[in-house]
Design a protein that fits this description.
Length: 111
């Protein structure tokens, strides 16, 4: 292409102008890091100590029967509540996706 001619693609135009490429979608990264943040703020109060029968984070034996029920069941229980755990761990401002991310985080500790 001649100097000063428009670049063929937006990416080429940014590269020619020395601009950085747009960041890749960070949705999965945000969900993963968000899961730990939700756990730290909401879930840890019971799941760090096993308060009121909550399965302790990182306790493979406690999580094994729950994992056998499948992730959909874990998500549903976390959103709807069970036993002493209120819906969404009492943090009703959380979206279902944020609660699911916290479940994913806790499951990651036992896999």
């Amino acid at each position: 292409a001649a100097a000063g001619a428009p670049a063929a693609t937006p990416a080429a135009a940014r590269a020619a102008a020395g601009a950085p490429a747009p960041a890749a979608p960070a949705e999965k990264t945000a969900a993963a890091s968000g899961g730990k943040g939700v756990y730290d703020k909401t879930c840890m109060a019971c799941h760090a100590t096993g308060l009121a029968g909550a399965p302790k984070a990182g306790d493979k034996a406690a999580w094994e029967p729950r994992l056998k029920q499948g992730m959909a069941a874990l998500y549903a229980t976390s959103i709807k509540g069970k036993g002493a755990m209120p819906p969404k761990g009492g943090a009703m401002h959380l979206s279902d996706a944020e609660v699911n991310a916290a479940v994913d985080y806790m499951v990651s500790l036992v896999k």
